[in-house]
Amino acid sequence: MDGKESDLIQYHLKNNPSLSMQSICDSVIGLIFATLFNTQISVALAMYFLGQCPKALQQLREEFQQKMNDTGTTGKLTWDDYKNMEFCESVINETLRFGNIVPGLWRKTLSDIDFKGYTIPQGTTVMPNIAAMHLDPSAFENPNIFDPWRWLVMKKSNNWMPFGGGVRQCNGSEIARMEIAVFLRHLILNYNWELDEPDHPIAFPLITFPKDLPIRIHPLVEKTA
Ligand SMILES: *[C@@H]1O[C@H](CO)[C@@H](O)[C@H](O)[C@H]1NC(C)=O
Ligand SMILES: *[C@@H]1O[C@H](CO)[C@@H](O)[C@H](O)[C@H]1NC(C)=O
Ligand SMILES: *[C@@H]1O[C@H](CO)[C@@H](O)[C@H](O)[C@H]1NC(C)=O
């Protein structure tokens, strides 16, 4: 934006006169969902999964501390550190795999497609079920276990597409990952937390916590030897 428009709607109206009103609404609503809802729920899911997996929480805390010790920075996260936090990346990948905040995508075939003996005619709406892919035991061993360590071995997977894929892949994937990492690092270096009441994620149809995941957090006490 060049600064003259004060919001996204004005930006579209001024710069994209060919967009229909519906496309503008899609863009605005999509942005609200993608930036506000998805990142927040990913963070909540990470806190929920880590809360049930103390070993992963411990390893993540150690990685954050280690990076801080190595660079001697007093708490600030540097870009180099961010790009070298392998376990943090694994926790985020696993949270996105297991959490399935985007269960499916809507796509349209632009030409006839042959798929496993079926022909999907041009113009058909196709909904890849991302959650089913992420929980497929032939793609992920013990898919119903939160296991960030699998990423240290696997590195990447063609069956992992929390941000979709192809030309319509989510534009905000990198910033979303970074926001999650920055939040987790600040939280985990400074606090412990526990559930205040039992709660669990449900798909309704998007992922939500019926009680909004009430937690109690405690500052980590600085250990002075
Ligand atoms: C980081 O440094 C602190 C203080 O010297 C030390 O207690 C801690 O064990 C170190 N942590 C790691 C993961 O290296
Ligand atoms: C996490 O997923 C990204 C995107 O596929 C991949 O590039 C990265 O290697 C994965 N991280 C780890 C630690 O496997
Ligand atoms: C974001 O999406 C737009 C429109 O689809 C595309 O032109 C642009 O290259 C994308 N940017 C990134 C960083 O992926």
TrEMBL record:
Chief place where the protein resides: membrane
Amino-acid positions noted as binding heme in the UniProt annotation, renumbered to this chain: 170
Keywords: Heme, Iron, Membrane, Metal-binding, Oxidoreductase, Transmembrane, Transmembrane helix
GO molecular function: heme binding; iron ion binding; monooxygenase activity; oxidoreductase activity, acting on paired donors, with incorporation or reduction of molecular oxygen
GO cellular component: membrane
Protein's membrane topology: Single-pass membrane protein
Compartment(s): Membrane
GO terms for biological process, alphabetical: brassinosteroid biosynthetic process; brassinosteroid homeostasis; sterol metabolic process
Cofactor field: heme
Transmembrane regions: 28-51
Pfam families: p450 (PF00067)
Similarity-based family: Belongs to the cytochrome P450 family.
The name this protein goes by in its record: Cytochrome P450 family protein
Organism: Rhynchospora pubera
